[in-house]
Amino acid sequence: MRIKDISAENRPRERLEKQGVIALSDAELLAIILKTGNKQENVIDMSNKLLSKYGINKLSSCSLKELQAIKGIGKAKACQILALFELNKRLNFVKQNGRSLLSAKDVYQYVEPKLMHLDRECFMLLHLDTKNVVIKEETVSIGTLNASLIHPREIFKSAIKESANTVIVVHNHPSGDPEPSSEDRITTKKLFDAGELLGIKVLDHVIVGKHKFYSFNETR
What we know:
- The protein is of the alpha+beta class.
- It folds into two domains: 3-96, DNA polymerase, domain 1 (Orthogonal Bundle); 104-215, Cytidine Deaminase, domain 2.
- It is built from eight helices and five strands, in the order ααααααββαβαββ.
- Strand 4 and strand 5 (213-215) form a beta hairpin.
- Helix 2 (26-34) packs across helix 3.
């Protein structure tokens, strides 16, 4: 099946425009990078086959020559894949050597570029080391247009797995107004209390609005 034979709402680029980059699968993201398939398969099928056979880790460690040896991957596509993973490596390097998040403003500046264009609530978790440097960021849930459903066990299951010293939870308000709702306040209290019990402190819950933010820690 050719890409143009797929309904518009199911094409990667159109889905990205409508739902945001966070909604796409790994294969769909790779398909956007590669742009086109070949005579035997469309770019989505090609991306699915690549990830199914090699996985992201192996694919990311391939050399230019190794990538070109994969059926359907020419020099141009091999270069695109190499460039994609190299950018990701450099981003991870920046994160690992980044500055500490010492205030709600630091958190806002860190997450605002990732959340500013979303049209629905996205709940994120930042895992921090002992110096308050982000060791991992994770999207816990994507809500409806005005609500995001999360549970403390989802937060702390991930934090325990990552051996995080502390965590910061963040979500956006697509309306642009960061003022917390009653649901936000109830959820935040549950998270703070659960963190105290488990010994993984929740440093803050920051709500991101349009050019402004709300911090539960700094307003308590």
